[in-house]
Amino acid sequence: xxxxxxxxxxxYIQILNTLNPNSITPQSNVMTYVATENNSVEHPITKSxxxxxxxxxxxxxxxxxxxxxxxxxxxxxxxxxxPSLNPTPNPPLCHSQHSREANVHLKDxxxxxxxxxxxxxxxxxxxxxxxxxxxxxxxxxxxxxxxxGIVDLTTHIGKxxxxxxxxxxxxxxxxxxxxxxxxxxxxxxxxPTRAVSSARNLIKKKHVxxxxxxxxxxxxxxxxxVGSKSKVPIIxxxxxVPSWSDxxxxxxxxxxxxxxxxxxxxxxxxxxxxxxKVNVIYEDINSAVSGIIPYLISALQDAGxxxxxxxxxxxxxSDHSLSKRLRDLKxxxxxxxxxxxxxxxxxKIFTNAKRIxxxxxxxxxITTVDTMNLMDTFDGSIISSMQGVLGVxxxxxxxxxxxxxxxxxxxxxxxxxxxxxxxxxxxxYALQAYDAMxxxxxxxxxxxPRSKSFQNSTNNSLMLSISGEKIVSRISESNFxxxxxxxxxxKGILSPERIFRIINVVGRGYREIGYWTxxxxxxxxxxxxxxxxxxxxxLGQVFWPGGPWSVPIGWAVPTSAxxxxxxxxxxxxxxxxxxxVYDQLGRGIVAxxxxxxxxxxxxxxxxxxxxxxxxxxxxxxxxxxxQVILQFYVTFFGIxxxxxxxxxxxxxxxxxxxxxxxAKRFQSGDFSQPYAxxxxxxxxxxxxxxxxxxxxxxxxFSTSMWISIGVINIYNxxxxxxxxxxxxxDRNAEIRRGxxxxxxxxxxxxxxxxxxxxxxxxxxxxxxxxxxxxxxFLALVLTQxxxxxxxxxxxxxxxxxxxxxxxxxxxxGAKIGCDGGSFVVAYLRDVLKIHPDNIVRIYSEDDYAQxxxxxxxxxxxxxxxYLKVFLAKYCKGFTTSGPIYxxxxxxxxxxxxxxxxxxxxxxxxxxxxxGALKDLENSLTSSYKCLASDSxxxxxxxxxxxxxxxxxxxxxISTFALLLFYTYCWPIEQIxxxxxxxxxxxxxxxxxEPTATELVARGPAxxxxxARGPAxxxxxxxxxxxxxSGSTRTSHISHRKNxxxx
Length: 1046
Description:
Helix content: 25-40%
Strand order of the largest sheet: 14-13-15-16-17-21-22-23
Number of strands: 37
């Protein structure tokens, strides 16, 4: 920038016409002269402005010109009339940037006409454009450009921001031969009213080009209005500027990064350790309530956790009130606390928490960046009260040369401004202020100036005077790598933070245990090759409050003074599951039943003692579930204030009952692992069908059993036949007579005759008798089993029962019964499409039997557990029909995200695996001493597996006897020969007895018994003589036969 001496306009025109007479007219006040390298081509361009030329005698004070370089072929830019920005008291040098010193006649003549010192131009081959701007406004002096700053100098953050802004201006303009802008800082002391007053003073009196600062949203809100009315850009450093502010305040730019992602990091920490409920302590300022707290609630819900209590605290809260609020949280069950507050309030919270014993075992404290970003400024007493605290801290690279250079200069500037303050590492807020000031300075310059901190700058440039709209536009188009990260805007919003440090307060300071990156998770470093995990367990050991290395469970077990309140239903139609009676001694209520017994068994498998009390509830099951719901209600007041009011609709901590698990009940609470099988089935009266019973006698034995009996009978008969046939020597014996077919028929007859008669005495061989005895024993067992099974089939009234389906009931409009207060009513109406008028609500289990017998209802739908108990009581007259619909199942109800629910579900699984649940189910039905009927005949059928041992013994003995006979007896019979040869020729066959015809021919004497006395003796003597010839041979044969009989 160069200020020219006071000349009249005619004098300026005369000078310019000397250079190019045709280029300037009296109405022109801007002339652009283009000179090439050899000064052979001239392109004068004039632009007329709508200004009334002054009188020839009027002077144009403090006119100025600027120089810039473009290509000779590029179109020349429009040049506007601009005032001088840098008045210089001494005569300045005449600048014509990037023009060759030789052969440029413009330079020598122009400088000589203005009596300015000669200009030494740098050697270059580029074309120069000299823009001469004349200000025709008489009396208006040029002013030095200024940039305003509004910070809270009562805080350490405000002091660091002021030092960082000053360092940024010095870095940007330290090597530029121009006067740097002046930084004018005002102290708001955190008061929006003072901030507004300071902004008006800076704009109206100091004529600042822009204002940077405003750490809080209330300050930003009101100052943004002032900037929009004055058309001065306001660059805010507040972390929570709502998106809707852009449309209402076009001159407001938020240069601070959104911290919403930090809430996802906090939720990821909660999820890593499976803590399902947390308490949130937050500073009750507008930005926290309207901005980041809803993000925290959403992030926790996505992680499977929820907020137990919200505790807003004012910044000026007294220690007494704060201690009372902390004690209220201490008396609750939740032990995980999230603190989102400024550093002063956070230090007060931890100091009081340590004093009342909340920094001990079982407690978990997690803080956000508002506290952790200033950890370096805390003294030893504060750090000692924060031992074991986990937190997230803003991430920025501390290893770059740019940061190291800044840290050195920041240290010097901070000591210069606040020498009484202890030095600390610059926090992220100082880095944000530095980047914001750099963006504003770049928006006020034509090119990026060369400086110590930005080695990529190539051109020096003079300051431009541009409108506020242009400054806002240039800032929004910024794209550079700042100290706090990439400085670029996406849809008008500065790119948010996506990486955070995870720190743990230990000893005299803190340690960084890892990093969290959005959409990636936790890691030990930020390198490209880092391994990421959704759980922070990857980061290693964490030091928890109180010193334990074991992870706190995140909640406190209830004490006897404050036990769990468990709701139990009073009006229950199925008393075998839950029965609530009042103690006659006045000691409260007594709950019993299957569901209560399952709950008792579950408590035995918990790793801790769980105090509880049963509270009766008289109402529907749906109403009972709604008693455990916890609801938040949000109320808006005005534009800026958003108040949270917590309304607690919780009468019970849990519900223990035969509560069916259905979808709509999940809106009120969470269910445990089911302890009863799901299912819904139809119950009807038992009616037999008119079926053909002609073949019912075959039902006692299965098909394979009948085949096995036939095969074994035939085999045993064959063995006996073979032994007896070969043993009998008489060819005229019945077993040896006739054809082969006749002998086979005799064999089969003998085989099956054994099943019904005893003929062991008629057998000749002892081996046959052994086979027959075993065979008879098998036949006896089979006949007795057959008789018993057939009797059971005939006596079973449930055999071949008539079936009923839902289509028939629906088409005929039959009445269907169900529990009046259960989900079954809606299921029959909405799913099975039963007309509501045909649904009969029943409120007692005994009423089902009466209604079915009296035909008040055609069928009833009951859940499977109820159905088992009903059939155990009324098994002789009722049965089930139709398919089983897989709905329901019983479970216990707890509050959503209850810390007890995972342990209860795990304990129920252990009860089932130990067999205790099965024993409880058996005791539920066995007390009625009546088994449920089974309509299938297969239940009574006997199979081969039941008689496999007897069949094996029978077949084995028969086979052994047959082998023994052919091994030892058969060869002897072959050696002895046939009986005719042994008796000799003419001898009658042994054992021959007269037939009936012979006895008649012999006369009566043949039938008379032998005479007694002498006559008889003589007769015997005669007979002995007649048979004397063959007596010896007969005696020998008889002796042999008796000796070898088996």
